[in-house]
């Protein structure tokens, strides 16, 4: 149905830049989060994980404020209602996860003994959280469970983007390029 040559409208430059910057950082943080334990004897990934995660938080706040200022470009004709609905659900979940994952991580890191610095350049403030508290236990559970949810939704989101591009030949990926 779709035709890659037909006209399509792209997301604005700010939206595209923030999308790809955050995408790279989130994929990196899912990897360092899941691998820090097994790779512990060889490399300390946690300082990098925390600094990248705090960067994701800052960029996501900017992104959500920016997102409130424009309408998404209209979908090309021929995209099913179900596809649009599922895209909406996954994308809304992403905006929530882009805030909740770093904030729960920040809670965990605040209860730890290490200072919270940003790539060794400056120190970030810690939240008033201690190890044996409800905030810490809940934060820990959420960070772990939502991390897996995030990973699953990224797989779905990428599979959908590639399916619309290569199989259905609809200009969906191009809207974000
Ligand atoms: C979008 C951003 C983030 C993602 C996707 C993410 C993802 C993950 C994942 C998948 C794990 C492994 C969970 C487990 O197996 O227990 C993890 C662990 C951890 N993350 Fe994050 N994280 C993010 C942000 C942060 C931030 C901002 C901090 C701190 C400032 C942080 C601190 C931690 C800590 C301390 C652990 C180890 C928890 C433990 O095993 O005790 N994370 N993260
Ligand atoms: C891994 C972390 C990623 C996150 C958190 C993420 C998040 C998002 C969000 C929130 C939107 C909705 C934008 C809006 O309308 O407000 C979006 C759209 C989009 N993303 Fe991602 N994305 C990620 C990775 C990727 C990757 C790797 C690809 C390509 C393979 C991709 C392709 C797209 C496309 C094509 C759209 C537009 C979809 C549409 O028009 O409905 N994303 N993404």
Automatic annotation (TrEMBL):
It is a multi-pass membrane protein. The chain crosses the membrane at residues 18-36, 48-66, 87-109, 145-168. InterPro entries: Cyt_b561_bac/Ni-Hgenase (IPR011577), Cytochrome_b561_oxidase (IPR052168), Di-haem_cyt_TM (IPR016174). The keyword Zinc-finger does not apply. Gene3D superfamilies: Transmembrane di-heme cytochromes, Chain C. The lineage of its organism: Bacteria, Pseudomonadati, Pseudomonadota, Alphaproteobacteria, Sphingomonadales. This is Cytochrome b. It is found in: Cell membrane.
């Amino acid at each position: 149905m779709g035709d890659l040559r037909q006209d399509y409208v792209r997301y604005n430059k700010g939206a595209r830049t923030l999308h790809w910057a955050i995408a790279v950082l989130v994929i990196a943080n899912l990897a360092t989060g899941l691998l820090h334990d097994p790779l512990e004897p060889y490399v300390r990934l946690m300082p990098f994980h925390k600094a990248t995660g705090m960067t994701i938080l800052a960029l996501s706040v900017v992104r959500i404020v920016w997102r409130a200022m424009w309408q998404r470009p209209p979908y090309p004709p021929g995209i099913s209602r179900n596809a649009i609905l599922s895209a909406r659900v996954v994308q809304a979940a992403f905006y929530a996860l882009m805030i909740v994952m770093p904030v729960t991580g920040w809670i965990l890191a605040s209860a730890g003994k290490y200072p919270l610095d940003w790539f060794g350049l400056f120190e970030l403030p810690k939240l008033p959280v201690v190890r044996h508290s409800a905030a810490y236990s809940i934060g820990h559970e959420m960070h772990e469970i939502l991390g897996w949810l995030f990973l699953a939704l990224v797989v779905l989101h990428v599979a959908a983007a590639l399916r619309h591009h290569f199989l259905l030949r609809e200009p969906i990926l191009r809207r974000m390029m």
